[in-house]
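Hypothesis: this fold can be encoded by more than one sequence.
Test: take the structure tokens below, design a sequence, compare later.
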């Protein structure tokens, strides 16, 4: 598989980074995981949006969802896909898509909307996706992807949970968030991970490598990476817009 970082900023755009969006490729299959605000501008340089095999939106927060609307309008008016692009997400996200495009106006030749829930499995060509529940304030999906050769977990947003551990277990690559550097006494639970929590998750799940994303500006990325390397034995990297990882 190949992972392209389209956008990696957490919660809001950073000076040199758009919000969460990741392209996973396996041979001719291309799955877009999230489409956070600003990310569409980077997507063009990696793939023509009409050539996407599917899009998965983890949850309804705008830093993971906003540019799906821009992609829809681009496809409808500029570059229609050869066949409708399957969109997989929570019911909450799909209702927002319908509202933002306009009640009753979704062109089904552009998007094929599909509601999914934790426990669902979707096969796209030879790529299998399984979805897990994330510990986050709104319904949020963790995605595990597998082809014939390798596997990865996209943890999306959320605090530690059994779902996150199960989804990341023995993965070849864990794409995990560290929104904050360290937990403090007033650190909210059930929201995000910090560097130590992410490192311990990767270590416990035996993930072979870790890509750290969704860092909220101006958090110190170098400090996050330092903490991770002290507590996780595998290879660890910071996600940056434009980077590519093969596994």
């Amino acid at each position: 598989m190949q992972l392209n970082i389209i956008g990696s900023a957490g919660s809001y755009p950073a000076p040199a980074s758009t919000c969460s969006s990741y392209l996973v490729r396996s041979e001719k299959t291309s799955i877009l995981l999230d489409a956070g605000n600003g990310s569409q501008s980077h997507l063009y340089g990696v793939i023509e949006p009409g050539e996407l095999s599917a899009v998965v939106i983890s949850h309804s927060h705008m830093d993971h969802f906003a540019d799906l609307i821009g992609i829809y309008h681009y496809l409808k008016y500029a570059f229609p896909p050869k066949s409708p692009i399957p969109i997989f997400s929570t019911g909450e996200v799909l209702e927002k898509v319908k509202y933002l495009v306009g009640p009753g106006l979704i062109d089904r030749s552009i998007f094929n909307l599909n509601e999914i829930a934790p426990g669902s499995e979707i096969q796209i060509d030879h790529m299998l996706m399984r979805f897990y529940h994330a510990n986050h304030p709104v319904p949020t999906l963790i995605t595990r992807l597998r082809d014939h050769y390798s596997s990865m977990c996209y943890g999306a947003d959320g605090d530690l949970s059994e779902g996150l551990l199960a989804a990341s277990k023995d993965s070849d690559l864990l794409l995990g968030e560290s929104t904050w550097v360290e937990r403090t006494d007033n650190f909210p639970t059930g929201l995000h991970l910090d560097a130590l929590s992410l490192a311990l998750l990767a270590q416990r799940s035996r993930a072979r490598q870790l890509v750290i994303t969704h860092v909220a500006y101006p958090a110190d990325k170098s400090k996050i990476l330092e903490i991770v390397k002290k507590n996780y034995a595998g290879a660890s990297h910071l996600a940056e817009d434009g980077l590519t990882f093969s596994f």
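The helical segments are 40-43, 62-65, 67-77, 91-101, 162-168, 195-205, 221-231. The chain has one domain: 2-246.
Hypothesis status: open.
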